[in-house]
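Hi Y.,

Following your request, here is the sequence exactly as I used it, all 527 residues.
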Amino acid sequence: MKLTDILKGAPDPKAWEGYQLPKFDLRAVRAKTHDQPTWLHFGAGNIFRAFPAAILQDVLDQGAYDRGVIVAEGFDYEIIDRAYAPYDDLSLLVVLQSDGSIQKKVVASVTESLKADPQFANDWARLEAVMTAPSLQMVSFTITEKGYSISPADLERGLAPALIMGKVTALLYKRYQAGALPLTLQSMDNCSHNGDKMKDAVMAYANAWAKAGLVDEGFLAYLADEGKVTFPWSMIDKITPRPDALVQEMLEKDGFEDREVIVTDKKTYTAPFVNAEETEYLVVEDRYTNGRPPLELGGVLYTDRATVDKVERMKVCTCLNPLHTALAIYGCLLGHTLISAEMKDEDLRGLVTKMGYQEAMPVVVDPGVLKPADFIGAVLNKRLPNPFMPDAPQRIATDTSQKLPIRFGETIKAYGAKGLDKNDLVLIPLVLAGYARYLKGVDDEGNAFAPSPDPLLAELQPIVAGLEVKEGTQDMGCLKALYSRKDVFAVDLYEAGLGERIEAMAAELFAGPGAVRRTLHKYVSAR
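Below is the corresponding structure, written out as tokens. Let me know if you'd prefer a different format.
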């Protein structure tokens, strides 16, 4: 069983038993996509193959569309050379479901893979041809939030930029020169208001080039004309971890040969297969200027900008991300190394369940397209307990100081804005109290551990340096320097009426070995 067998003809159904194979004519779709491309995607990583490309695969299998997606990689070119080209641009999606079942599907919607840099002359020429095709409707992106960054040095490189947003802007200039053809640039990255981040980056390059006389002013007007070019928002949510050894072993038993785990020089972990969770959401602002592929047939939810924002806030502020951070903090303190194992811990499961349903849910704005109760139910019952997902609290605890403002501070502010009683908040304060104990870097058994990387770690840890993990009373007054920081919590927790309560909880958490478990159990069981 090899992916390259798929294009050679009808694969042996007995050999591929248990695998979903493409139901469409691959060669016909590839030919039509080459001649009349509609969708170009930047970012050839695992999330693209496991989600947007798999969505298109479903649409193609239904016979509802006749063109695939062309993928370009502008950062790690080894992905194209090692994970795409040797396998005819095909991949295997392994969906690891929370009930223990496994779905295996060959994804064949990707028709070409290109390296997005002029040093690869043939690939760059093809990208220019695709970008100037009147049929092109959408250019989408999964390049991580860092991919939208710009630098003064790159702006000064003129029409030969090194960063991906500069390259995209150069390609957009080609489309403008070809007749100011309409196009939509669709970020699918997991960052708030992602379309604005993309537009800001593109406009930074375009303005710099116009100022230097490298492009004409009409290019700026083209990019600013929402009848020509749009940058919609989206909310994406799906976990695609690194290729997993257990999945690799399972594929070996099946006789599937294309299972090499690839680690590039830039430390990208990929493979001809992608393992992913079953739950997925892609909510997109439906603001396209030249039509779009019918991805709603594969599960994409198209709506307006305000609704995308509501879904984003529902996820980030209440129904998912705060639960992750709570498990990260207390998981590290209690010695857990897997999120799925934490969900078997009665106290920790109770913490995130009650915090989500009882404390966060009252301030959730229902976006309409997704019910908050259904979303959080999937988080608690399918996503977090999934034994196949090797996610660790230590990873999620990275950059916690940057996550606390939106994941907890916004809920506290919403309580005030809605006139709700903050005395009803018990478990959210408990999580924030746990952060002080986490900063101490001593687990519940009294053993030292290294908190995960965080830009404020060196600044915040000295605040708790004088506190000890010991029985008996101690002065917790030093914590005012922590819990009054609006940059960390979005509010001054004392002004919000919660500071003293959090201090008292922190005192309980510091009261000797076993204090974390005792305190956690006390407040969770009483809620």
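The radius of gyration is 25 Å.

Thanks again,
Q.
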